[in-house]
Design goal:
Layout lengths: L18 H5 L1 H9 L2 E5 L4 E3 L7 E7 L2 E6 L5 E7 L4 E2 L1 H6 L6 E4 L3 E7 H10 L3 H18 L5 H16 L3 E2 L3 H8 L3 H10 L5 E4 L2 E4 L2 H9 L4
Antiparallel strand pairs: 1-8, 2-7, 3-6, 3-8, 4-5, 4-7, 9-11, 10-11
């Protein structure tokens, strides 16, 4: 079995909770069918913090990062998003501005639906309860990553989740971004990555390389105690 044969499995070994998982394949395919598709290169801004919610993006391939910038200009990496995820729906449904920016980490294909069309789609398919579950799942994911539990465990969960989403052993993430995401110091991330060298996790320039994903997955699946 491939290390990445976990289509619906999250980093900690539980069932994934993307919108595609929660809404079902038929609804997801119809959402995509009523949208238009476009490609984005690595490093492109998909959504801008502070802008009004005028459209919603369905991620079809690739990986993006969600980043919130404080009033003082300090960035915080909130999450990684990959295929099956929805981007921008909170601002559209709430009628406010975007609370974070989304930037591509790899070449991404997205399906674009304008706000009015998305609102109509949600009403027609009675998706409000599903979107509420989806929002709670993402909040739980963020809380677990930035919680008070064992940092080594949380780091392993983050790296495995990113590897599963990107289906790659080479992750485009820096020590600073991991520190932001886990709410710890950069020095702590550097020290823990050295500990994970026993799982053949190696640091490269702006990259983390995982050569033994099953071993890292075992740490991620532990209780973190």
């Amino acid at each position: 079995m491939s290390d990445f044969a976990y289509d619906a499995v999250g980093a900690s070994g539980t069932l994934g909770e993307t919108l595609r998982d929660l809404a079902g394949e038929a609804v997801w395919e119809e959402l995509v069918r009523h949208s238009y598709e476009r490609w984005h290169s690595p490093g492109e801004l998909l959504l801008q913090q502070g802008e009004p919610g005028t459209l919603v993006l369905s991620v079809l391939s690739g990986v993006a990062k969600v980043v919130r910038t404080s009033r003082g200009g300090a960035p915080t990496l909130l999450a990684f998003r990959g295929p099956g995820e929805l981007l921008g729906e909170v601002a559209v449904r709430g009628g406010g501005v975007r609370l974070a920016s989304v930037e591509t980490l790899s070449r991404c294909k997205v399906a674009v639906m304008m706000a009015a069309d998305f609102t109509r789609f949600v009403d027609e398919h009675k998706l409000s309860p599903v979107l509420e579950r989806y929002a709670l799942a993402r909040l739980r994911e963020s809380t677990e990553a930035r919680g008070s539990g064992d940092v080594l465990h949380r780091l392993a969960v983050t790296l495995v989740k990113f590897a599963d989403i990107s289906r790659s052993r080479e992750l485009a993430v820096t020590h600073d971004e991991l520190a932001q995401h886990l709410r710890c110091s950069r020095n702590t991330v550097t020290r823990l990555l050295r500990e994970l060298e026993s799982c053949q996790v190696w640091t490269r320039r702006k990259r983390i390389v995982i050569d033994d994903l099953p071993a890292l997955r075992c740490i991620a699946a532990s209780d973190g105690g």
